Amino acid sequence: MKLLTTILFALFIFNAAAQETTFNSFYKKHKELSTFSINLSASIAGSFLDDDDNEDLQKLIKKSGDFKLMVFNNEDESVSKDFNKYLKKHNLKTMTRIKSDNSKAAFYILEKNNLVEEIIIRTNSEDDKLVLFGLKTNLTKDELSEIISSVNSK
Predict the structure, then answer these.
(1) What are the tens digits of pLDDT across the range 25-53?
(2) CA torsion, points 151, 63, 83, 126, in degrees to nearest 10?
């Protein structure tokens, strides 16, 4: 019985560790370098929504886990370089990029088993600020497409 309990406990620990999002590892590694960081569960974020709020936003929150927001002074570009390495290492797909003057924004997803498991938004400003927003999700590509298209139509 002890052996069975030990094996089940080990499997639980292994499974829990495997469920950590890739952005969570980046968040933990770079948290000390950020000028501001916050980790917020989707259930807490959802409590701030009214029933009248956008239906697609409610759907996104309902199918989401943790939100992570990080703001960096990126004067030496070191965090940006680390983030670019992170993108390549974890095979995140670039969905869109926007550039306006000296400011940039990009939208990335991590897709596994036909599900969008993570969404990451990156913005850079002309004053060397870097903002990263990570979101753990459980959306299909079709659901994400619906949410994006409804935002574009408003």
Answers:
(1) 888 888 888 888 888 777 676 666 665 55
(2) 30
